[in-house]
Specification:
Layout: E1 2-8, H1 12-23, E2 28-32, E3 44-46, H2 47-52, E4 62-64, E5 66-70, E6 76-80, E7 86-88, H3 91-105, E8 108-111, E9 114-120, E10 123-128, E11 136-143, H4 150-154, E12 163-172, E13 184-187, E14 198-202, E15 206-213, H5 217-231, E16 239-246, E17 258-260, H6 276-296, H7 301-325, H8 329-338, H9 342-354, H10 362-378
Parallel strand pairs: 1-2, 1-11, 2-8, 5-13, 11-17
Antiparallel strand pairs: 3-7, 4-7, 5-6, 9-10, 10-11, 12-15, 12-16, 13-14, 14-15
Bound molecules: flavin-adenine dinucleotide.
Flavin-adenine dinucleotide binds at residues 8-14, 31-34, 37, 39-45, 113-114, 144-146, 150, 166, 168, 210, 243, 245, 262-264, 268, 273-277, 279.
């Protein structure tokens, strides 16, 4: 059987891409290495994503509109989202649902770890480990196989550059940790992460606590242990998970016959490590470009142009934020202090929940700038 498109990887980016392609009548195969995969992930998604992709309510374990930012000195800023919330999902259920939607749209979903992708005539031949799936042929490829994408290696895409190593532990609620069950907490503290942040994300029956660093796997374990100690948690986690987060788009993520989407393309925003939204958007935009390519020979490059046009300002803004404020505890302290400002909160929530980059008025910009200088001089 020769498919029009083979999608490698069945996380959010691949599942959405396969669903969009199959809905348009494109013969599509989705190859996922493990249909029971539990992707290491905080599972925090913005309201805008839930609305745009019609995510059913039963998958949203919690809707949290209260968020706390904590500084190195222990200053806590509590923020309320006036018109929205962060949705908490559990990736094992979320990914399974998205794949089932792709299958419902007509995509063929198979389980197999892709071992090699080779050019063959005007398409590709895909082999899986132990020949779990008989060799598959496809005219085009969408690589949606995560941060360490095999597709990218075999098809010689430029490397995924900046990767954060992130670790998370899940704890069942107990009387000792019930206090964390209704608020998203973000810790900006060099002892927990010298270059990223720590998070506490409440789910329906457990807490997910994690941290990340641009350093090595060994370091993240030490940081995570310190975080749990600082929180005073003595309960044992029921799950430890770790994975890399690629927080810089590859120099190029399109070729003539293949594209990369989601983490495989490096589409996670700096500073906050948000990847699910960009995985799903790139899966959708990539699949739409693929449909035009197959039907009218439109260049696949249009996908990358469109993605960059829509989201490059957000990536740039967050890269600047990270490089300015995540350098030391003094700067983190002033960053948290600035979060107390209602205008800063409004801008943050608008850009997170709906990915709107609305420039602040000149008056607001001057006010934020002055507060910034004040906190930097004062050292808080
Ligand atoms: C600890 C941690 C916490 C995070 N928290 C958040 C968060 O709260 N909110 C947020 O928005 N983002 C978060 N992220 C980022 C987010 O998880 C990713 O950006 C997102 O999962 C990307 O989706 P994807 O479909 O591109 O890739 P993935 O979700 O990684 O999916 C790739 C899929 O490909 C499959 N695969 C890989 N190799 C092969 C192969 N050779 N053959 C076949 N299949 C293969 C994998 O099994 C997997 O199912 C977090 C990441 C980490 C590591």
């Amino acid at each position: 059987m020769r498919y029009d498109v083979a999608v490698i990887g069945g996380g959010p980016s691949g599942a959405i891409a396969a669903a969009v392609l199959a809905t348009a009548g494109i013969s599509t195969v989705l190859i996922e290495r493990n249909l029971e995969n539990i992707k290491p992930c905080g599972g925090a998604i913005p309201l805008g994503l839930i609305e745009e992709f019609n995510i059913p309510d039963e998958l949203i374990e919690k809707k949290l509109s209260c968020m706390r930012a904590r500084s190195p000195k222990g200053r806590i800023i509590e923020m309320q989202m006036p018109n929205g919330y962060v949705g908490m999902v559990r990736r094992e259920k979320f990914d399974r649902y998205l794949r089932s939607e792709a299958e419902r749209a007509g995509a063929v979903v198979v389980e197999g770890l892709v071992k090699s992708i080779a050019n063959s005539g005007d398409g590709f031949v895909i082999n899986t480990h132990h020949d779990k799936v008989a060799p598959l042929r496809a005219r085009k490829i969408i690589g949606a196989d995560g941060a360490n994408s095999k597709t990218a290696v075999d098809l010689h895409f430029p490397p995924n550059e900046l990767k954060v190593m992130a670790m998370q532990q899940r704890f069942k609620y107990s009387p000792a940790i019930q206090q964390f069950s209704d608020t998203v907490e973000i810790w900006f503290d060099g002892e927990i992460s010298p270059d990223f942040y720590g998070w506490i994300f409440p789910k329906a029956d457990h807490l997910a606590i994690g941290t990340g660093t641009e350093g090595r796997r060994k370091n993240v374990k030490i940081l995570q242990k310190r975080f749990i100690e600082k929180l005073g948690i003595t309960d044992e986690p029921f799950l430890d998970e770790a994975a890399q987060i690629p927080m810089k788009p590859r120099k190029s993520f399109t070729q003539e016959k293949a594209i990369l989407v989601g983490d495989a393309a490096g589409l996670v925003t700096p500073a906050n490590g948000e990847g699910i939204f960009f995985a799903m958007q790139s899966g959708k935009l990539g699949a739409e470009a693929m449909i035009k390519h197959l039907n009218y020979k439109a260049p696949l490059k249009d996908y990358e142009k469109e993605f960059r046009k829509l989201y490059a300002p957000i990536f740039f803004g967050l890269e600047v934020l990270q490089s300015v404020y995540y350098r030391n505890d003094r700067l983190r302290e002033s960053f948290v202090a600035i979060c107390a400002d209602k205008d800063v909160q409004q801008i943050t929530f608008d850009s997170y929940l709906y990915k709107k980059m609305v420039p602040a008025s000149l008056g607001t910009q001057i006010k934020i700038f002055s507060k910034n200088i004040f906190h930097l001089i004062k050292g808080s």
